[in-house]
């Protein structure tokens, strides 16, 4: 079993809390992502799992073996945890060829000769870089270096692979290609991947489950679909919105939500109080611009980006909204239009706590950092 379990693990630097007490249960074979903005504690969490950072308190077990327990004084060194690590910087030996870099871990473990050569050959072919075996890192592109770093860990047979923002140094096209490769490798190897990223698209497309973090606290844990469709709070909704979330202040009135002069319909099963103040979240890609709709507006600017149209509008009450339509449309600045908002496109949050209000009118409970 390659299960990873964190039991109320905390990390402090003096009086500063880098990671608040958290409990996570990462199952065998998962592609589990730790996602959040810079400084949220995601890399520190990964480093504690791998043994590169010592927790202040709590317990960590890997493959059913306790590798850290503050209460019992247990702290297994990184080399004995059976975890491979792929760093953001790749960390390749510049004076070694690709073959030598990939076989380095085997050599350290005393695996040499034909057995080592066979393993290296298989892994290089799997990552489609066998033709680069005799080149040096300085002769490779960023994407090729990334594959070499992955090959080095896969060759030694690591059943748990930790990746710390491995694609952040690549350009947009290479990142897309490497996402496909990582997804394929995860499926083929069956290894447990623990992935750190601040990129929403990476987290949503690669993960089987993920934990969204903020200021050292886990905000929500779940599948990408669960978290995207039912965010626990406004922060999660904003962070995982691929286009900037539109936020508007509203008041519950007459079975709907009034935003200035506009009245938006609520789901039939919504149970909210008349006069209740709410924050309305509208995802740009779930809105449409039509001659008639829910919110009267004026086009500020509009431009076509590939197969989509990105438009900024201003409402009669002074709100600026972004609309992303999945087609090429011409919207002349100054034109009077209306934003069409479907019931399913609306997210409601408590104005005071910023926690999401479910369709049943119940405020989503705050995360207790357990999963």
What's the SSE blueprint?
Blueprint: E1 4-13, E2 16-26, E3 31-35, H1 42-50, E4 57-62, E5 65-69, E6 74-75, E7 83-86, H2 98-108, H3 113-126, H4 142-155, E8 160-164, H5 172-189, E9 192-197, H6 200-206, E10 209-214, E11 217-222, H7 224-229, H8 234-239, E12 246-253, E13 256-259, E14 262-265, E15 277-282, E16 287-290, E17 295-305, E18 308-315, E19 320-325, E20 336-341, E21 346-350
Parallel strand pairs: 3-9, 3-10, 7-8, 8-9
Antiparallel strand pairs: 1-2, 1-4, 4-5, 5-6, 10-11, 12-13, 12-15, 13-14, 15-21, 16-20, 17-18, 17-20, 18-19
Helix pairs in contact: 2-3, 2-4, 3-4
Fold and architecture overview:
The chain folds into two domains: 4-235, P-loop containing nucleotide triphosphate hydrolases (Rossmann fold); 241-350, Nucleic acid-binding proteins (OB fold (Dihydrolipoamide Acetyltransferase, E2P), Beta Barrel). 23% of the residues lie in helices and 35% in strands. It has helices at 42-50, 98-108, 113-126, 142-155, 172-189, 200-206, 224-229, 234-239; strands at residues 4-13, 16-26, 31-35, 57-62, 65-69, 74-75, 83-86, 160-164, 192-197, 209-214, 217-222, 246-253, 256-259, 262-265, 277-282, 287-290, 295-305, 308-315, 320-325, 336-341, 346-350. The strands form four sheets. The chain has a six-stranded mixed sheet, with helices on both faces. It has a five-stranded antiparallel sheet with strand order 2-1-4-5-6, covered by helices on one side. The chain starts with a strand and ends in a 21-residue tail after the last strand. 38% of the residues are buried.
